[in-house]
Design a protein that fits this description.
Elements: H1 5-21, H2 43-62, H3 66-77, H4 82-106, H5 112-135, H6 138-158, H7 172-176, E1 180-185, E2 190-195, H8 199-216, H9 221-231, H10 236-260, H11 266-286, H12 292-315
Antiparallel strand pairs: 1-2
Helix pairs in contact: 1-11, 2-3, 2-11, 2-12, 3-4, 3-12, 4-10, 4-11, 5-8, 5-10, 6-12, 8-9, 9-10
Length: about 325
Amino acid sequence: MRVDHPARVIASLLALAAVLLAVPAHAAAGAAVATGSAVAWWVWPLALFAACFLMGIVAVPAGIGGGTLFVPIVGSFFPFHLDFVRGAGLLVALASALAAGPSLMRGGLGSLRLALPVSALAAASSIGGAMLGLSMPVNVVQMMLGGVVLGIVVLMFMYKSSEFPHVARPDALSQALALNGVFVDGASNRVIHWQVHRTIPGLFAFLAIGVMAGMFGIGAGWANVPALNLLMGAPLKVSAGTSSVVLSLVDSSAAWVYINKGAVLPMIVVPSVVGMMLGARIGARLLNVLRGSVIRKLVIGVLLFAGARALLKGTGIWP
């Protein structure tokens, strides 16, 4: 029996909530909210839902993952411990990827053959990154997060996508792994045959991407697409579609480390995931109405401010 898309989304959210509610009770006793806060506890989940709803709306037209906005903004402006924020950020990115992945695969825009080798390395390194991030002092992680977010801003300024990169000849490894495919471009109704090159540098790039995804909990959509498109030569739409498949494999690996360490709190994750996914549905509808350049500038401004605040918060200059 065929289940429509909203029903699948609701079922996924219920399954996620069931898993999170199975987290050991001692996790809820952790210092999720800063001590001495005069605001009632239930205000923060509502505020988190509203903030994530807005983030979901702007993340889709801007072409970045929700986790990229979630961790620096929530970690800097909400009174939650950074470990809980990073754990929630991975699940936010994972939920978004799982929602988008099946339709992209059916449309031929996501290549499982391309995603598997890069995901295997990124998933392994993301587990190490998550363990490393949880073992480091929070202020050090906060400073490093600020530096990474500011680096993302620079990357967004410099990144010039190539819709159909020219790959004259695939390398030996990509030929051995059969990293090629065909898809129909809906905009031009062209049948595009694609292949990739520079496979070994691409695999090393995904090792580094996995470490950052696990350590900071920001997902890796902001880095997956440039690595697949600019470095390896996959078409832009195939890169974006394959990125969702990579995210679903990489973020799930790192998320289990946070769950096992008790760094996942349903009070933070559930409103974040629901708000982000509902906002993303609206953002997808607004994609053809809003100018992407305007949304992109807004996101760059927000990330610039959030990254600077995270950096200053880690140094103690701005509490």
